[in-house]
Design a protein that fits this description.
It is a single chain. By secondary structure, the chain is of the alpha+beta class. The protein has 15 helices and eleven strands. The two termini are 32 Å apart.
Length: 532
């Protein structure tokens, strides 16, 4: 697809739906989303499109819907991330910030309370603006919310086709694991109240530096008013939660206090404000860092952390050494191009060899020099391992979407709310697991530590998960036929589903144990077994 521009001239990205997702897409709702900004006043339209990767054009293939165009993620919502031997450019998902100071320091992502409050204030104002447009996020989670590290932190939302606009949504509402509204309330998703609950959860977890915290205690640093609002926001009763507009004044006051207060509140031993993270080997700045497809690149030098945001600056190579480095590279290139390697070298230089595009090949990510290894001491070997880790992370994200369907489907059956539709949800989840399993078989893991064990445990988890989904689908259909008071509610299919789920959980835990050090090394998401 050639480069396109959307909205007010922003570069476009293309999202293509899988065959399974297309079954659930409400095309009329998608077309309504596309038209929506055109009917807004110019200032409101720009305000919306500056904060979301909004659908701007429906795309068809062979006369049938295939996906849509949307605004590319702006460059400011990418962030350099420090790994043990290099920097990479990553999508600035908020999940990176929901970790303790030690984790963030190791990746040069340390932020202070002023940054956190400014980001939360901007997010609250953005959500309030959405709500006034009758637009609700629904699946508000750290996966689809991005942050910037510019002079003043900003938020940006992706996966906008899961939002609810004027009562309709393109895809069925789902929730990210550990970001669900209280199940006991039985409340509708993607409402003012559900967004309020998840925003309060975001506040608590950001200040706690914890992915799963549910206690607002850490917000005491932001003042009594902010903590009180978070406690109200986490109420089981949807009607007791504050609106997003009610957050703005207390957050403003907390910001004023934080800007004039003494040094940052931090864990013992963390670096002081304004100081770069030290220790470890010298690294190279991410001049040619990898980035997700369809997302704009940005030069790390163009990003300027705001006041009080202690972000380590990637060390630059001394000018005096550049000539020497160039000579070494040139000698190596001449060696590689010596007969009988001339043809292969020409392909590498032209970008027509196994590396694919010329840019990728010339950046050194696609070609192994003779004798390179998989350790971080060899840039090429490490880069290839990083590619394999990124491919694994992409598969996990794909599989995780199906995981979100399970808990709501179980609730539909156990509460006798809608077992027939639950059966369809289980069936689709099972189809997604099998598709993920097929993709897993194509993954290369030879460069990853314990790669074969990693892949084997994931395949086992997906196999048992698919078997559980199939059993639960049969259970739901049986309950729909026989009634919620029948023996089908506790029959053999339910038992088989629970049995396969336990086997899947064991495999997921084995996988997570192996995946966590790989993810930390290559800057991919660290997951709980419940995310798979």
């Amino acid at each position: 697809m050639s480069t396109r521009r959307v909205g007010d001239g922003w570069p476009a990205a293309y999202k293509e739906y899988s065959a399974d997702a297309l079954k659930a897409v409400d095309r009329a709702a998608l077309e309504t989303m596309v038209r929506f900004p055109r009917d807004l006043p110019a200032d409101q339209r720009r305000e919306l499109l500056e904060r979301v990767a909004w659908p701007t054009a429906v795309v068809e293939r062979g006369g049938a819907l295939s996906g849509f165009l949307m605004r590319q993620v702006p460059a400011e919502f990418m962030t350099p991330l420090r790994l043990p031997t290099r920097y990479v450019d990553k999508l600035a998902q908020v999940q990176l910030l929901l970790n303790n100071d030690a984790y963030r320091a190791g990746r040069e992502l340390l932020v202070d309370d002023v940054f956190q409050l400014e980001f939360l204030r901007d997010t609250a104002a953005t959500l309030d603006a959405f709500h006034r447009l009758d637009l609700f996020v629904g699946d508000l989670s750290p996966n689809n919310l991005l942050f910037s590290r510019t002079t003043k932190p900003r938020c940006f939302f992706i996966d906008c086709d899961t939002m609810r606009l004027r009562g309709t949504s393109v895809l069925p509402q789902v929730e990210t694991v550990d970001w669900e509204v209280p199940s006991a309330s039985g409340e509708q998703l993607a409402t003012r109240a559900s967004d309020s609950y998840k925003f309060a959860l975001l506040c608590a977890r950001l200040f706690a530096g914890d992915q799963t915290a549910r206690d607002a205690g850490a917000l005491s640093r932001a003042g009594a008013d902010v903590r009180r609002l978070a406690e109200q926001g986490l109420a089981t009763d949807p009607g007791a939660r504050p609106t997003l507009a009610e957050w703005l004044g207390p957050l403003d006051r907390a910001l004023d206090a934080a800007r004039t207060s003494a040094p940052l509140t931090r864990s013992p031993g963390s670096p002081p404000a304004g100081s770069p993270v030290t220790g470890g080997p010298a690294l190279r700045p991410p001049h040619a860092a990898r980035r997700p497809p369809g997302r704009a690149a940005t030069s790390p030098a163009s990003r300027h952390p705001g006041p009080g945001v202690p972000v380590g600056t990637p060390p630059a190579a001394p000018r005096a050494k550049l000539g020497t480095l160039f000579k070494i590279a040139l000698v190596g290139l001449l060696f590689l191009c010596a007969a009988p390697r001339l043809a292969a070298c020409q392909q590498w230089w032209d970008g027509t060899g196994s590396g694919g595009t010329g840019t990728a090949a010339r950046s050194g990510t696609a070609v192994d020099a003779p004798g390179s290894d998989d350790g971080d001491g060899a840039a090429t070997g490490s880069s290839r391992a990083a590619d394999q880790a990124e491919a694994m992370a992409g598969l996990l994200a794909f599989s995780g979407r199906d995981r979100r369907k399970i808990a709501p489907a179980v609730q539909k059956v156990t509460t006798c709310a809608d077992p027939a539709s639950a059966a369809i949800d289980f069936q689709r989840a099972g189809e997604g697991r099998r598709e993920a399993l097929e993709r897993a078989r194509d993954l290369r893991v030879d460069r990853l530590p314990d790669g074969e064990a990693l892949l084997s445990s994931l395949a086992s988890a997906l196999t048992h998960s698919a078997a559980a989904d199939d059993a639960f689908a049969r259970w739901a259909r049986a309950v729909a036929r026989s009634g919620c008071r029948s023996a089908a509610m506790t029959g053999a299919d339910r038992d088989e589903g629970d049995h396969q789920s336990r086997l899947a959980t064991s495999a997921k835990k084995r996988f997570v144990t192996l995946w966590t050090p790989v993810a930390e090394r290559y800057g991919e998401p660290v997951l709980s077994y419940r995310d798979i």
